[in-house]
Amino acid sequence: MIVVLFVSLVIFILLEMPVAYAIVLSSVCAILSLDSPLPLTLIVQKIFNGVDSFPLMCIPFFVLAGEFMSAGNISQKLINVANIFVGRIRGGLAHVNILASMLFGGVSGSATADVSSIGTILIPTMNKAGYQKDFSVAVTATSATIGIIIPPSNAMIVYAMVAGSVSISGMFLAGVIPGILVGLSLMVVAYIISVKRGYKAEKGRPFNEIVRSIIEGIIPLFTFVIILGGILGGIFTPTESAVIAAFYSFIISVFLYKSVKFKDIPKMLYKSALTTAAVLFLIGASSIFGFLLAYAHVPQVIADFMFSITTNEHLLILMMFLIFLIVGTVMDLTPALIIFVPIFLPIANQLGMDSVQFGIFIIMSLAIGLYTPPVGAVLFITCGIGEVPIQKAAKAVLPFMIAMVAIVLMVMYIPAITMAIPNMFN
C-alpha cells in the first residue's frame, strides 16, 4: 500500500496535478491496492473531519487581513519606520529591507506578500543607490521568509492542524524569538558584505519627518499587537484575534489611509476565499494521508530505520534537518508540511523534542527552500522584480542561507529559544 501511495503521489505531482488532488487520488489508489480495501467513504469522512475545526476559522480572516495590508500601501509606511531605526547603519537600505520584512511579516504572515510589497519598493531603490542587483535580490528573498516565522503565520496554523493537539497560540508565541534571531543574523551578514563592498549608510531625516513616520508606522503595526498581545493577555483566542485583525486592517486601509476603495473589496474577498479554500482542502487531504501513514505504521518503520543507522539523538535530528532542506528545494512549504509532519513528528517526540519546537524547526527548515532552486518560489518572484538571473541570485543568497541555517541549528539543539515564551504562559 505504501509503495502505491508514494509512487502514485510522485506521478501525479510530476503530471503537475494540484497537490491536494494528488494526495487524495494517491490515497484512493493506496486504499484500492489493499487486499481488504477500506471503504472509500473513509476519504470523505477524513477530509471533512480534518477541516471541521473551530481554530481553522482564523485562516480566512488572517488571509483577509493580509490582503488589506498588502493593498493598503502599508509597506511604504513600515519601510519609513525601519529606515529611522536602522537606516544609519552601514548598508542602511539592506537593514531597512530586513527590518521592514520583519515588521510586515508580523502583519501579513506571508513570504510572497512580503516580496510583492516590500520588494517592489526597495529593490529598485537599492539598485538606484548603488547596491548590486544580486545583493538586493538576495536580501529581499531571504528576509521575506521571516514572514512565516514571526506570527501570525498560515504555515503555523497548517502545522498545528496537521500535527493535531498542537496549540496555534503556542506556535505563534514560539516563533517570536526565532524570527527575531533570523532577522538579526541576516543583518550581520548584510553589514559584513556592505563594509566589504563599500555600501553607505542612509542620511539622517528631519525630526518632524521622523515623528510623522513613526506615528504612521505604529498604526498598522498595532495589528501585530492585537494578535500577539490579545493572545498573551488571554483576552481572545487566535480565531478571535484574526477577526479583530481583519476588521482593524479594513478600517485603516479604507477609512484612515483611503488606499482601498469599496469597489476593491469584492475582488479582495474573492481572492481571500480562493486562498482559504486551497489551504483548507490541503488540510483536509492531509487527514486521509496521515491516517494511511499511521495505518501502515510508516512513522515507526522510518524511525526504526533511522535508529538502526545511529542512536545519537543529535545526529538523528541533523538527519531530519538535511531531509527537510532537500525537500524544501523541490516542494512548496504547505504540501511538505502535510506530507512529512505525520512521518517525522512521532520520531521527534521519541527524541524528546516538543511538538511546538519541532513545528518551528520544520517550518524554518522548509522556509530555506523558498529561496533555493529549483522551486524557490520567493526567489523566482524576487528575481523577476530585480531582473536578475536565477543562477546569479542563487549564489548571492548563500551567505544569508548559512546564517539562517545557523539559527535553525540553534532552534534544533536549544529548546529554550522556542519554548521560553510559550512556557511563560502555560
SS-based class: mainly alpha
Following the backbone from N to C, one meets helices and strands in this order, namely: HHHHHHHHHHHHHHHHHHHHHH
Strand content: under 5%
Based on CA inertia axes, which overall geometry fits? globular
- Assign a percent range to the helix content: over 70%
Number of strands: 0
Main sheet summary: none
Defining key terms:
globular; 426 residues; mainly alpha; 0% strand
Short précis:
The protein has 426 residues and is mainly alpha-helical. It contains 22 helices and no strands.
How would you describe this protein?
The protein is built from 22 helices and no strands. The protein has 426 residues and is an all-alpha fold. It has one domain. The two termini are 41 Å apart. 51% of the residues are buried.
Blueprint of the fold:
Layout: H1 2-14, H2 19-32, H3 41-51, H4 58-71, H5 74-86, H6 92-108, H7 111-128, H8 133-144, H9 154-163, H10 168-174, H11 176-197, H12 207-232, H13 238-256, H14 265-295, H15 298-309, H16 313-330, H17 333-350, H18 355-368, H19 377-386, H20 390-396, H21 398-413, H22 416-424
